[in-house]
Amino acid sequence: MMRTMWKGSIQFGLVYIPIKLYTATENKDIRLRMLHKECLAPINYTRTCSKCGKAIENESIVKGYEYAPGQFVPISEQELNDLQDNGDKHIEIINFVKLSEIDPIYYEKSYFIGPDSGNGIRAFSLLKQAIQDSDRIGIANIIIRSKQHLAAIRSFENGMLLETLYYPDEVRAISEVPGLGDLATDNAPKEMTIANQLVDQLTTEFNPDQYKDDYRLKLEKLIDDKVAGLPVEKKKGRTSQPNVVDLLSALEASVKETKPKPKRKTVARRKKTV
After folding, report:
1. Rounded to whole angstroms, what are the CA distances from 145 to 5, 26, 81, 149?
2. Can you give the pTM of this predicted structure?
């Protein structure tokens, strides 16, 4: 059963819809511990003060901001809480926009939205249907774990999804990337033709089930084999890369390698007559 990670309401005009948020994705990275090589026991880390060297307990730790090198101003939890305008934890939908107008670079994390009580299910269903029929998504602000996020609320299957977005000043300018000024403005026609052909041959419908985390699967097998005392498989040598001398040759070789193989025709066998 999913665990509630946020509880509040969505404000749709003058309508307040009680909701709960549930994390929609999960990180399946395999966590490796740091061990003492001789004892194979976990390494413990203690929090110590960089000035006096004493070990510090949680109750003696406060938050602060470094406004100059080595100079800090403390900020209490109460002061942080007082900065939050929506003390009753509600999400106010500010605007509705088209999903295609938001570039994927702004998306941060996804959450399922669920109704919080029986009384709010009718309003929840109404908002979901209105968003779905309009082919729009709602833009709102939400505070999660003391941080304000821009958020997109959209219809998703038989429910709704909230996706936190980066604010514009959190997205770096692509103009800061070195070397972009050296890009060619007029690519060779023949190279472009073959490059477009390669794109066409690799184009398919998006099916997320066909993509696997190969590294994680290999790591899981390595761990299982070591726990079972099985010998570790040696890494196979990499296949040699073709010796390509120029871009055009590389494109032509890529098109040839990715070209779909013709389907073999099956010849129907005649039934023997007795």
Report:
1. 10, 18, 11, 10
2. 0.75
